[in-house]
Amino acid sequence: MRVYFTFDPRPDLKESLVNDFPEVDFIFHKTIDDKELAKAEVLVTYGEDLDEEKINIAKKVKWIFVASSGIEKMPHQAIAERGIVVSNVRGIHKKPMAESILAHLLSIKRALPFIYKNQQEKTWNQKTKLYELNGSTALILGPGAIGSEVGRMLQAFDVYTIGVNRSGESAPYMNETHSMDKLKELLPKADILISILPSTVETRYLLNYEHFTLLKDHCIFMNFGRGDLVKTEDLIRALEEKQIFHAVLDVFETEPLPGDSKLWEMENVTISPHISSRSSRYLERSFEIFKRSLRKWMNGERNLENKMDILKGY
């Protein structure tokens, strides 16, 4: 079996794979080589380097392992037509992303940007408002693996958590869980609105200006899912009109965020360049999932961990 990595992982991770699977030929490249792609039976990629042409070249590939949770940039139709199995690393982001979300929340509530600015300017200034996280209500769009971990951490701060998903079925660490059709009824309850939704047909531009008008004017909006959840112009309008208190954005409609975007200059916006999921342990956790799935694949099993419906996007 020939497994082709379109990125070059750390030496210790490569060595571990080779030692654990001596019967497999592993090829590691920093970019895609078409000759190697044509020989591969299993492809390991971050997903963004694949297009329809590459899938046509990869005639022997039966399984694509995506070392990322998002697959929106992959050639869905071409992969589906070939019947290629796709799985990803869903769930490995929950620890770093939940910590990032909590860090941003506490930073805003406890005025850390104000404190850091004063330190740089050597200014003793106590004129700022400080708020507490406890006693607030968080509305979490997408209480899956990441959202539930966020809920667990927030509940430790006595935050009431409300999850919103497609089915309305209960989710871990949610005090309540509702279906997406109840969204407008739930928005007025939120002191914090957190989205961890993927990019799908159902979630694209799910939020609009009207939704922001339903939120409390002290609400903090946090988008850590995908940037096409809301049109940038609608969000900017809501922020300019002070419909919400603050927005923390890790994802954007266009990435990198253009230098002329109004978002850069707004005092009630925190911009994170899509790095909330990063961690020194990212690939380590990815390889743990890949090893389990590779063992299954070699045994003839096709119901892999985190197997995806490529056309649905999840």
List the helices and strands and how they pair.
Layout: E1 2-5, H1 11-20, E2 25-28, H2 34-39, E3 42-45, H3 52-57, E4 63-66, H4 76-82, E5 85-88, H5 94-109, H6 112-120, E6 137-141, H7 145-155, E7 160-165, E8 176-179, H8 183-186, E9 192-195, H9 209-213, E10 220-223, H10 232-240, E11 246-249, E12 269-271, H11 282-298
Parallel strand pairs: 1-2, 1-3, 3-4, 4-5, 6-7, 6-9, 7-8, 9-10, 10-11, 11-12
Protein name: D-2-hydroxyacid dehydrogenase
GO molecular function: NAD binding; oxidoreductase activity, acting on the CH-OH group of donors, NAD or NADP as acceptor
Keywords: NAD, Oxidoreductase
Give a nutshell description of this structure:
The protein is α/β, with parallel strands linked by helices. Helix content is 32%, strand content 16%. The mean pLDDT is 96.
Kindly identify the CATH topology of the largest domain: Rossmann fold
CATH superfamily of the largest domain: NAD(P)-binding Rossmann-like Domain
SSE ordering: EHEHEHEHEHHEHEEHEHEHEEH
What would the principal axes of the Cα set say about the shape? elongated
Computed structural class: alpha/beta
Amino-to-carboxy terminus distance? 27 Å
**Strand share of the residues?**
15-25%
Provide mean pLDDT, rounded: 96
How is the biggest beta sheet arranged?
A: 7 strands, parallel
Number of helices: 11
Record the strand order, biggest sheet.
8-7-6-9-10-11-12
Count of discrete domains: 2
The count of strands amounts to 12
CATH architecture of the largest domain: 3-Layer(aba) Sandwich
